[in-house]
Design goal:
about 400 residues; alpha/beta; Aspartate Aminotransferase, domain 2; 7-stranded mixed sheet; 5-stranded mixed sheet; about 35% helix; globular; binds pyridoxal-5'-phosphate
Protein backbone atom coordinates (compact mmCIF):
# COMPACT_ATOMS: atom_id res chain seq x y z
CA UNK A 1 0.00 0.00 0.00
CA UNK A 2 1.12 3.51 -0.80
CA UNK A 3 0.88 6.68 1.24
CA UNK A 4 -0.04 9.15 -1.51
CA UNK A 5 -3.12 11.14 -0.55
CA UNK A 6 -4.89 12.33 -3.73
CA UNK A 7 -7.59 14.11 -1.79
CA UNK A 8 -5.01 16.16 0.11
CA UNK A 9 -3.47 17.17 -3.22
CA UNK A 10 -6.85 18.44 -4.42
CA UNK A 11 -7.59 20.29 -1.18
CA UNK A 12 -4.21 22.04 -1.35
CA UNK A 13 -5.37 24.00 -4.41
CA UNK A 14 -6.50 27.56 -3.63
CA UNK A 15 -9.06 29.31 -5.76
CA UNK A 16 -7.43 32.49 -6.97
CA UNK A 17 -10.42 33.84 -8.89
CA UNK A 18 -10.36 37.61 -8.85
CA UNK A 19 -13.84 37.81 -7.36
CA UNK A 20 -12.72 35.76 -4.32
CA UNK A 21 -15.44 33.12 -4.61
CA UNK A 22 -14.72 29.88 -2.77
CA UNK A 23 -15.90 28.09 -5.89
CA UNK A 24 -14.35 28.67 -9.27
CA UNK A 25 -16.38 31.01 -11.49
CA UNK A 26 -18.06 29.62 -14.55
CA UNK A 27 -16.34 30.95 -17.61
CA UNK A 28 -19.17 32.11 -19.85
CA UNK A 29 -17.22 33.10 -22.93
CA UNK A 30 -16.38 31.27 -26.11
CA UNK A 31 -13.84 33.91 -27.09
CA UNK A 32 -11.53 36.21 -25.14
CA UNK A 33 -10.44 39.74 -26.10
CA UNK A 34 -6.91 41.12 -26.13
CA UNK A 35 -5.73 44.66 -25.39
CA UNK A 36 -3.85 44.84 -28.68
CA UNK A 37 -3.44 42.91 -31.92
CA UNK A 38 0.18 42.30 -30.92
CA UNK A 39 -0.94 40.62 -27.68
CA UNK A 40 -3.25 38.38 -29.68
CA UNK A 41 -0.46 37.51 -32.08
CA UNK A 42 1.92 36.66 -29.21
CA UNK A 43 -0.64 34.21 -27.85
CA UNK A 44 -1.11 32.62 -31.26
CA UNK A 45 2.64 32.24 -31.58
CA UNK A 46 2.83 30.53 -28.20
CA UNK A 47 5.01 33.32 -26.71
CA UNK A 48 2.41 34.19 -24.08
CA UNK A 49 -0.09 31.87 -22.40
CA UNK A 50 -3.55 33.41 -22.35
CA UNK A 51 -7.07 32.19 -22.89
CA UNK A 52 -7.97 32.70 -26.51
CA UNK A 53 -10.95 30.54 -27.36
CA UNK A 54 -12.91 28.07 -25.21
CA UNK A 55 -12.38 25.02 -27.40
CA UNK A 56 -8.74 25.31 -26.35
CA UNK A 57 -9.33 26.14 -22.71
CA UNK A 58 -10.89 28.56 -20.27
CA UNK A 59 -10.45 29.28 -16.57
CA UNK A 60 -13.10 26.80 -15.39
CA UNK A 61 -11.81 23.91 -17.50
CA UNK A 62 -8.29 24.75 -16.43
CA UNK A 63 -9.29 24.69 -12.75
CA UNK A 64 -10.86 21.23 -13.11
CA UNK A 65 -7.93 19.95 -15.18
CA UNK A 66 -5.48 21.19 -12.54
CA UNK A 67 -7.44 19.54 -9.74
CA UNK A 68 -7.57 16.22 -11.62
CA UNK A 69 -3.86 16.50 -12.40
CA UNK A 70 -3.22 17.03 -8.67
CA UNK A 71 -5.29 13.94 -7.91
CA UNK A 72 -3.27 11.88 -10.41
CA UNK A 73 0.06 13.52 -9.57
CA UNK A 74 0.61 14.44 -13.22
CA UNK A 75 1.91 17.75 -14.58
CA UNK A 76 -1.14 18.60 -16.63
CA UNK A 77 -4.62 17.62 -17.72
CA UNK A 78 -7.34 18.21 -20.28
CA UNK A 79 -11.05 17.76 -19.64
CA UNK A 80 -13.27 16.42 -22.39
CA UNK A 81 -16.96 16.13 -23.19
CA UNK A 82 -17.04 12.39 -22.48
CA UNK A 83 -14.81 9.52 -21.48
CA UNK A 84 -14.91 8.27 -25.07
CA UNK A 85 -13.70 11.68 -26.26
CA UNK A 86 -10.67 11.35 -23.98
CA UNK A 87 -9.98 7.77 -25.12
CA UNK A 88 -10.32 8.40 -28.85
CA UNK A 89 -8.29 11.61 -28.65
CA UNK A 90 -5.36 9.90 -26.93
CA UNK A 91 -5.36 6.90 -29.27
CA UNK A 92 -5.60 8.99 -32.42
CA UNK A 93 -2.88 11.31 -31.14
CA UNK A 94 -0.35 8.62 -30.28
CA UNK A 95 -1.00 6.23 -33.17
CA UNK A 96 -0.59 7.03 -36.84
CA UNK A 97 -1.88 5.04 -39.76
CA UNK A 98 0.25 1.88 -39.91
CA UNK A 99 0.90 1.79 -36.16
CA UNK A 100 -0.13 -0.91 -33.74
CA UNK A 101 -1.54 -0.99 -30.23
CA UNK A 102 -2.16 -3.71 -27.68
CA UNK A 103 -5.22 -3.78 -25.47
CA UNK A 104 -7.39 -6.08 -23.42
CA UNK A 105 -10.41 -8.12 -24.58
CA UNK A 106 -12.21 -6.74 -21.57
CA UNK A 107 -11.86 -2.98 -21.99
CA UNK A 108 -15.03 -0.89 -21.73
CA UNK A 109 -17.48 -1.78 -24.53
CA UNK A 110 -17.17 1.57 -26.30
CA UNK A 111 -13.37 1.42 -26.19
CA UNK A 112 -13.51 -2.18 -27.45
CA UNK A 113 -15.78 -1.31 -30.37
CA UNK A 114 -13.69 1.76 -31.27
CA UNK A 115 -10.48 -0.23 -31.32
CA UNK A 116 -11.93 -3.30 -32.99
CA UNK A 117 -14.07 -1.64 -35.65
CA UNK A 118 -13.41 2.06 -36.04
CA UNK A 119 -9.60 2.11 -36.01
CA UNK A 120 -9.65 0.04 -39.23
CA UNK A 121 -10.75 3.21 -41.01
CA UNK A 122 -7.40 4.78 -40.26
CA UNK A 123 -5.37 1.59 -40.61
CA UNK A 124 -4.35 1.31 -36.96
CA UNK A 125 -3.76 -2.31 -36.09
CA UNK A 126 -4.97 -3.65 -32.72
CA UNK A 127 -4.13 -6.86 -30.89
CA UNK A 128 -6.55 -7.86 -28.15
CA UNK A 129 -4.98 -9.92 -25.39
CA UNK A 130 -5.74 -11.27 -21.96
CA UNK A 131 -4.01 -8.34 -20.24
CA UNK A 132 -3.47 -10.39 -17.07
CA UNK A 133 -1.31 -12.81 -19.06
CA UNK A 134 1.97 -10.91 -19.38
CA UNK A 135 3.50 -13.49 -21.73
CA UNK A 136 0.62 -12.91 -24.11
CA UNK A 137 1.19 -9.15 -23.88
CA UNK A 138 4.93 -9.53 -24.57
CA UNK A 139 4.27 -11.84 -27.50
CA UNK A 140 1.91 -9.28 -29.02
CA UNK A 141 4.55 -6.54 -29.23
CA UNK A 142 5.53 -5.57 -32.78
CA UNK A 143 8.12 -3.09 -34.07
CA UNK A 144 5.29 -0.60 -34.74
CA UNK A 145 3.60 -0.95 -31.33
CA UNK A 146 3.00 2.54 -29.99
CA UNK A 147 0.77 1.87 -27.02
CA UNK A 148 -0.41 -0.60 -24.43
CA UNK A 149 -3.90 0.43 -23.40
CA UNK A 150 -5.49 -1.00 -20.28
CA UNK A 151 -7.93 -0.32 -17.48
CA UNK A 152 -6.68 -0.52 -13.89
CA UNK A 153 -9.76 -2.51 -12.89
CA UNK A 154 -11.79 -3.96 -15.73
CA UNK A 155 -15.21 -5.36 -16.43
CA UNK A 156 -16.56 -7.93 -16.16
CA UNK A 157 -14.53 -9.87 -13.57
CA UNK A 158 -12.87 -6.83 -11.99
CA UNK A 159 -9.39 -8.08 -12.80
CA UNK A 160 -6.55 -5.75 -11.88
CA UNK A 161 -3.88 -4.96 -14.45
CA UNK A 162 -0.27 -5.35 -13.37
CA UNK A 163 0.60 -1.74 -14.21
CA UNK A 164 4.33 -1.86 -13.32
CA UNK A 165 4.85 -4.96 -15.48
CA UNK A 166 2.88 -3.47 -18.37
CA UNK A 167 4.85 -0.23 -18.07
CA UNK A 168 8.10 -2.21 -18.34
CA UNK A 169 6.91 -4.00 -21.46
CA UNK A 170 5.71 -0.74 -23.03
CA UNK A 171 8.78 1.30 -22.17
CA UNK A 172 11.30 -1.31 -23.23
CA UNK A 173 9.63 -1.16 -26.65
CA UNK A 174 9.40 2.63 -26.83
CA UNK A 175 5.65 2.50 -26.44
CA UNK A 176 3.39 4.36 -23.99
CA UNK A 177 1.26 2.85 -21.26
CA UNK A 178 -2.21 4.41 -21.30
CA UNK A 179 -4.44 3.58 -18.33
CA UNK A 180 -8.18 4.10 -17.95
CA UNK A 181 -8.62 4.53 -14.18
CA UNK A 182 -12.40 5.09 -14.22
CA UNK A 183 -13.23 2.31 -11.71
CA UNK A 184 -10.52 3.20 -9.20
CA UNK A 185 -10.12 6.97 -8.70
CA UNK A 186 -8.04 7.75 -5.58
CA UNK A 187 -7.65 4.02 -4.91
CA UNK A 188 -4.91 3.63 -7.52
CA UNK A 189 -2.62 6.35 -8.88
CA UNK A 190 -1.46 4.81 -12.20
CA UNK A 191 1.30 7.38 -12.72
CA UNK A 192 3.07 5.97 -9.65
CA UNK A 193 3.12 2.56 -11.31
CA UNK A 194 4.51 3.64 -14.66
CA UNK A 195 1.50 4.91 -16.62
CA UNK A 196 2.31 7.67 -19.11
CA UNK A 197 -1.24 8.85 -19.68
CA UNK A 198 -4.25 8.39 -17.43
CA UNK A 199 -7.78 8.56 -18.76
CA UNK A 200 -11.10 8.99 -17.01
CA UNK A 201 -14.73 8.81 -17.73
CA UNK A 202 -15.72 11.49 -15.21
CA UNK A 203 -19.31 10.36 -15.75
CA UNK A 204 -18.82 7.59 -13.18
CA UNK A 205 -17.33 7.84 -9.68
CA UNK A 206 -15.56 11.18 -10.13
CA UNK A 207 -18.70 13.20 -10.76
CA UNK A 208 -20.81 10.59 -9.01
CA UNK A 209 -24.26 11.96 -9.78
CA UNK A 210 -25.18 10.56 -13.17
CA UNK A 211 -26.24 14.00 -14.33
CA UNK A 212 -23.62 14.53 -17.04
CA UNK A 213 -21.00 12.86 -19.23
CA UNK A 214 -17.40 13.93 -19.17
CA UNK A 215 -13.84 12.73 -19.43
CA UNK A 216 -10.26 13.65 -18.73
CA UNK A 217 -6.72 13.09 -19.98
CA UNK A 218 -3.93 13.43 -17.40
CA UNK A 219 -0.37 13.57 -18.66
CA UNK A 220 2.97 15.35 -18.76
CA UNK A 221 3.22 19.03 -19.66
CA UNK A 222 4.98 18.01 -22.88
CA UNK A 223 2.17 15.69 -23.92
CA UNK A 224 -0.39 18.34 -22.93
CA UNK A 225 1.29 20.95 -25.15
CA UNK A 226 1.42 18.47 -28.00
CA UNK A 227 -2.26 17.48 -27.64
CA UNK A 228 -3.21 21.17 -27.78
CA UNK A 229 -0.84 22.21 -30.54
CA UNK A 230 -2.63 24.56 -32.94
CA UNK A 231 -1.39 22.74 -36.02
CA UNK A 232 -1.44 19.06 -35.17
CA UNK A 233 -2.78 18.61 -31.60
CA UNK A 234 -5.58 16.04 -31.56
CA UNK A 235 -7.30 17.60 -28.52
CA UNK A 236 -7.22 20.91 -30.38
CA UNK A 237 -8.36 19.72 -33.78
CA UNK A 238 -11.02 17.13 -32.94
CA UNK A 239 -12.63 19.52 -30.46
CA UNK A 240 -13.48 17.08 -27.65
CA UNK A 241 -13.85 19.94 -25.15
CA UNK A 242 -15.98 19.89 -21.99
CA UNK A 243 -18.49 22.66 -21.39
CA UNK A 244 -17.39 25.06 -18.64
CA UNK A 245 -20.73 24.82 -16.80
CA UNK A 246 -20.16 21.06 -16.51
CA UNK A 247 -16.57 21.56 -15.45
CA UNK A 248 -17.66 23.68 -12.52
CA UNK A 249 -20.10 20.96 -11.47
CA UNK A 250 -17.53 18.18 -11.64
CA UNK A 251 -15.00 20.26 -9.73
CA UNK A 252 -17.39 20.71 -6.81
CA UNK A 253 -18.15 17.00 -6.78
CA UNK A 254 -14.44 16.15 -6.85
CA UNK A 255 -14.09 17.57 -3.34
CA UNK A 256 -16.33 14.84 -1.91
CA UNK A 257 -14.83 12.00 -3.94
CA UNK A 258 -12.67 10.68 -1.09
CA UNK A 259 -15.67 10.32 1.21
CA UNK A 260 -17.75 8.68 -1.51
CA UNK A 261 -15.02 6.20 -2.45
CA UNK A 262 -14.64 5.21 1.19
CA UNK A 263 -18.38 4.62 1.52
CA UNK A 264 -18.70 2.78 -1.83
CA UNK A 265 -15.83 0.52 -0.76
CA UNK A 266 -17.16 -0.04 2.74
CA UNK A 267 -20.58 -1.03 1.41
CA UNK A 268 -19.21 -3.15 -1.42
CA UNK A 269 -16.91 -5.24 0.76
CA UNK A 270 -19.80 -5.81 3.15
CA UNK A 271 -22.06 -7.10 0.38
CA UNK A 272 -19.26 -9.11 -1.26
CA UNK A 273 -18.46 -10.91 2.00
CA UNK A 274 -22.12 -11.71 2.62
CA UNK A 275 -22.60 -13.05 -0.91
CA UNK A 276 -19.55 -15.23 -0.54
CA UNK A 277 -20.73 -16.55 2.83
CA UNK A 278 -24.00 -17.54 1.14
CA UNK A 279 -22.12 -19.47 -1.52
CA UNK A 280 -22.65 -17.07 -4.43
CA UNK A 281 -19.69 -16.93 -6.82
CA UNK A 282 -18.47 -13.38 -6.37
CA UNK A 283 -15.58 -11.34 -7.74
CA UNK A 284 -14.40 -8.51 -5.50
CA UNK A 285 -10.71 -7.60 -5.39
CA UNK A 286 -10.96 -6.79 -1.68
CA UNK A 287 -11.77 -10.39 -0.71
CA UNK A 288 -8.61 -12.16 0.41
CA UNK A 289 -9.68 -15.18 -1.59
CA UNK A 290 -9.95 -13.13 -4.81
CA UNK A 291 -7.16 -13.69 -7.30
CA UNK A 292 -6.62 -9.94 -7.61
CA UNK A 293 -6.32 -9.25 -3.90
CA UNK A 294 -2.53 -9.36 -3.66
CA UNK A 295 -1.88 -7.18 -6.68
CA UNK A 296 -4.39 -4.46 -5.88
CA UNK A 297 -3.11 -4.36 -2.31
CA UNK A 298 0.37 -3.49 -3.57
CA UNK A 299 -0.93 -0.88 -6.03
CA UNK A 300 -3.49 0.91 -3.90
CA UNK A 301 -3.26 4.11 -1.87
CA UNK A 302 -4.15 3.74 1.78
CA UNK A 303 -7.61 4.62 3.00
CA UNK A 304 -10.05 4.28 0.10
CA UNK A 305 -10.79 0.57 0.20
CA UNK A 306 -11.16 -1.73 -2.79
CA UNK A 307 -13.81 0.14 -4.72
CA UNK A 308 -17.53 -0.04 -5.29
CA UNK A 309 -17.79 -2.70 -7.99
CA UNK A 310 -18.85 -6.33 -7.48
CA UNK A 311 -19.41 -9.04 -10.08
CA UNK A 312 -21.36 -12.20 -9.29
CA UNK A 313 -22.43 -15.26 -11.18
CA UNK A 314 -26.13 -16.00 -10.76
CA UNK A 315 -26.16 -19.05 -13.00
CA UNK A 316 -28.41 -18.12 -15.88
CA UNK A 317 -29.40 -14.91 -17.62
CA UNK A 318 -33.05 -15.52 -16.66
CA UNK A 319 -32.28 -15.94 -12.95
CA UNK A 320 -30.15 -12.83 -12.95
CA UNK A 321 -32.85 -10.87 -14.76
CA UNK A 322 -35.49 -11.97 -12.23
CA UNK A 323 -33.21 -11.05 -9.33
CA UNK A 324 -32.52 -7.56 -10.67
CA UNK A 325 -36.18 -6.87 -11.46
CA UNK A 326 -37.18 -7.68 -7.89
CA UNK A 327 -34.32 -5.69 -6.39
CA UNK A 328 -35.39 -2.68 -8.42
CA UNK A 329 -39.01 -3.07 -7.29
CA UNK A 330 -37.82 -3.17 -3.69
CA UNK A 331 -35.89 0.07 -4.19
CA UNK A 332 -32.46 -1.45 -3.62
CA UNK A 333 -31.20 0.23 -6.78
CA UNK A 334 -31.74 0.64 -10.49
CA UNK A 335 -31.38 -1.77 -13.38
CA UNK A 336 -29.11 0.60 -15.24
CA UNK A 337 -25.68 0.71 -16.82
CA UNK A 338 -23.05 3.13 -15.56
CA UNK A 339 -21.51 3.18 -12.12
CA UNK A 340 -20.38 5.30 -9.23
CA UNK A 341 -23.86 6.62 -8.45
CA UNK A 342 -25.28 7.24 -4.97
CA UNK A 343 -27.78 4.42 -5.38
CA UNK A 344 -26.78 0.93 -6.39
CA UNK A 345 -26.84 0.23 -10.14
CA UNK A 346 -26.96 -3.29 -11.52
CA UNK A 347 -26.96 -5.02 -14.88
CA UNK A 348 -26.23 -8.31 -16.59
CA UNK A 349 -22.74 -7.90 -18.06
CA UNK A 350 -22.99 -10.09 -21.16
CA UNK A 351 -26.27 -8.53 -22.26
CA UNK A 352 -25.34 -4.90 -21.58
CA UNK A 353 -21.95 -3.44 -20.75
CA UNK A 354 -20.02 -6.24 -22.44
CA UNK A 355 -22.47 -6.82 -25.30
CA UNK A 356 -19.98 -5.44 -27.86
CA UNK A 357 -17.87 -8.53 -27.15
CA UNK A 358 -18.91 -11.41 -29.49
CA UNK A 359 -20.61 -14.35 -27.72
CA UNK A 360 -17.82 -16.88 -28.43
CA UNK A 361 -15.26 -14.51 -26.97
CA UNK A 362 -17.51 -13.77 -23.98
CA UNK A 363 -17.32 -17.43 -22.97
CA UNK A 364 -13.57 -17.56 -23.46
CA UNK A 365 -12.92 -14.56 -21.23
CA UNK A 366 -15.28 -15.62 -18.48
CA UNK A 367 -18.40 -13.56 -19.17
CA UNK A 368 -20.91 -16.19 -18.02
CA UNK A 369 -24.59 -15.79 -18.95
CA UNK A 370 -25.57 -15.09 -15.34
CA UNK A 371 -22.75 -12.66 -14.68
CA UNK A 372 -24.19 -9.65 -12.92
CA UNK A 373 -22.47 -6.40 -12.05
CA UNK A 374 -23.24 -4.21 -9.07
CA UNK A 375 -22.01 -0.69 -8.59
CA UNK A 376 -22.74 -0.52 -4.89
CA UNK A 377 -24.23 2.78 -3.71
CA UNK A 378 -23.66 5.01 -0.73
CA UNK A 379 -26.41 3.42 1.42
CA UNK A 380 -26.18 4.53 5.03
CA UNK A 381 -27.67 1.26 6.32
CA UNK A 382 -25.99 -1.40 4.25
CA UNK A 383 -27.18 -4.16 6.58
CA UNK A 384 -30.77 -3.31 5.70
CA UNK A 385 -29.81 -3.32 2.00
CA UNK A 386 -28.22 -6.73 2.45
CA UNK A 387 -31.37 -8.03 4.15
CA UNK A 388 -33.35 -7.09 1.02
CA UNK A 389 -30.77 -8.74 -1.23
CA UNK A 390 -30.66 -11.88 0.91
CA UNK A 391 -34.45 -12.17 0.99
CA UNK A 392 -34.59 -11.80 -2.77
CA UNK A 393 -31.95 -14.49 -3.29
CA UNK A 394 -34.04 -16.80 -1.10
CA UNK A 395 -37.27 -15.87 -2.87
CA UNK A 396 -35.91 -16.95 -6.22
CA UNK A 397 -34.08 -19.94 -4.73
CA UNK A 398 -30.56 -18.84 -5.49
CA UNK A 399 -29.61 -19.56 -1.87
C1 LIG B 1 -18.16 4.66 -19.07
C2 LIG B 1 -16.76 4.30 -19.34
C3 LIG B 1 -16.08 4.88 -20.41
C4 LIG B 1 -16.73 5.82 -21.40
O1 LIG B 1 -17.03 7.03 -20.80
P1 LIG B 1 -18.22 8.01 -21.29
O2 LIG B 1 -18.12 9.12 -20.31
O3 LIG B 1 -19.49 7.23 -21.21
O4 LIG B 1 -17.89 8.41 -22.67
C5 LIG B 1 -14.76 4.53 -20.58
N1 LIG B 1 -14.14 3.67 -19.77
C6 LIG B 1 -14.76 3.09 -18.73
C7 LIG B 1 -14.03 2.13 -17.87
C8 LIG B 1 -16.10 3.39 -18.48
O5 LIG B 1 -16.73 2.80 -17.47
Amino acid sequence: MNNFNPSKAIFAIQNTDQNRGVNVSISDSATFYFPTAQDMEATFNGEVEAFLYSRHSNSTNQALSNALAAMEDTEAGIVTGSGMAAITTVILHLCNSGDHLITSHTVYGGSFAFMKNWLKKVNIDVTFVDIINLDEVKAAVKPNTKMIYTETMANPLLNIADLPALADIAHSNNAKLVVDNTFTPMIVTPKHHGADIIIYSLTKFVNGKNDMVGGAILCSKEMFMDLLDLNHGTAMLLGPVMDSLRSSMVLKNLYTLHIRMQQHSKNAIFIAKKLKEKGIKVCYPGLESDKNYKLITTLMNKGYGYGGMIAMDLGTYEKGAEFLKILQEKGVGYLAVSLGYFKTLFSNSGHSTSSEVPTELQEKIGIKPGLTRFSVGLDDDIEATWAEIENTLKEIKLI
